[in-house]
Specification:
With about 325 residues, the chain is an alpha/beta fold. The protein folds into two domains: about 240 residues, Rossmann fold (3-Layer(aba) Sandwich), CATH 3.40.50; about 60 residues, Alpha-Beta Plaits. It has twelve helices and 14 strands. Helix 5 runs antiparallel to helix 6. The longest helix has 18 residues. The protein is globular, with a radius of gyration of 25 Å. InterPro entries: AAA+_ATPase, ABC_transporter-like_ATP-bd, ABC_transporter-like_CS, ABC_transporter_ATP-binding, P-loop_NTPase.
Length: about 325
């Protein structure tokens, strides 16, 4: 059960443009193509009930992979199964098992009230009356839909539309939810509502969620596991905490102090492998494998006065940047 992806690949044939009028005429009669490998032999498994972050740089192949998983595109090679059903073989059966939200597109009807769009989905998916009512009541409560249920989609803000799209994708109780940039461009308060909603639906219904986003806070707050792809290939699948342990080995201590104190501290740690930077506060960056925060601070707190002390580990965004930097420079993970 869950999602099983085995050795999928997808390439595109893109017309190679020739220069000038003569080149355009030649291209019209005898076009030449360049092959773009968008996805190259990717395999992974997602267990039922997991929330998995799916990340990569722009052009890495994320959207192409999701479109193959939901049946919009057909892989050149490989197979995709959702709850043991082969994607592309029985499209109707797969459609009942999945919900999809694309942040840049809406599945709602543009000129009719939101509630009417929901009723159309009820008829399309043949949702029983009681199930439809129960789901709609839950979604309205958590997502706060009541204020705009009778407005047409074209009158909604982006945040309101995204909440309505999320509701529409889950009305038929799909076992798998695909989210492609669901929080793009929306405000902090709406993001938090959507995160709470995704967590709650996952808890109540054990819905499997594949989340694609460039917002690392979405990944950190929601995901159990992480899949990282780059240039069409899989470079990491595993526990989010394991990735942090492996690549997030740096900690930062922020000390609020005067410039004179900062200068004295910089001198005192010059013999250690601690990076110092002063900008209204003193920032000490060190390897957690070599020093603990207590060891770094032990002598300082006895000698100097600070108005504030903060200790932070590397955030996921810094870790992902480090991974891409290593890959760009010929490394691997």
């Amino acid at each position: 059960m869950g999602i099983n992806v085995e050795h999928i690949s997808k390439s595109y044939h893109v017309v190679r443009r020739e220069k000038g009028l003569l080149g355009s005429v030649k291209q019209f009669f005898h076009p030449h193509y360049t092959i773009i490998n968008a996805v190259n032999d990717i395999s992974f498994n997602i267990e039922t009930g997991k929330i998995v972050g799916f990340i990569g740089e722009n052009g890495a192949g994320k959207s192409t992979t999701i479109k193959m998983m939901v049946g919009i595109l057909t892989p050149d090679r490989g197979t995709i199964r959702i709850n043991d059903e082969m994607v592309g073989v029985n499209k109707k059966k797969i459609a009942y098992q999945i919900g999809v939200v694309f942040g840049q597109r809406t599945q709602l009807w543009w000129d009719i009230p939101i509630i009417e769009s929901f009723r159309l989905f009820k008829d399309m998916y043949r949702i029983p009356d009681q199930e439809y009512k129960e789901n709609l009541d839950i979604f309205q409560e958590i997502l706060g839909l009541n204020e705009f249920m009778n407005q047409p989609t074209r009158h909604l803000s982006l945040g309101q539309r995204m909440r309505a799209d999320l509701c529409a994708a889950l009305l038929h109780n799909p076992s798998v939810l695909f989210l492609d940039e669901p929080t793009i461009g929306i405000d902090v308060a709406t993001k938090e509502k959507m995160r709470n909603f995704i967590r709650e639906i996952n808890r109540r219904k054990l819905t499997t969620v594949l989340l694609t986003t460039h917002d690392m806070k979405d990944i950190e707050e929601l995901s159990d596991e992480l899949i990282v792809i780059d240039r069409g290939g899989l470079i990491y699948q595993g526990n989010l905490q394991n990735l942090k342990t492996r690549y997030g080995g740096m900690s930062t201590i922020t000390l609020k102090c005067c410039p004179e104190t900062a200068g004295e501290i910089q001198k005192s740690v010059s013999s250690k492998e601690i990076n110092c930077r002063y900008d209204d506060a003193l920032y000490l960056v060190f390897d957690k494998k070599k020093y603990s925060a207590q060891e770094v601070l032990r002598d300082m707190v006895n000698q100097f006065t600070f108005s504030d002390i903060q200790v932070e580990d590397s955030c996921l965004e810094d870790i992902v940047k480090k991974i891409y930097y290593e890959i760009d420079n010929g490394g691997c993970i």
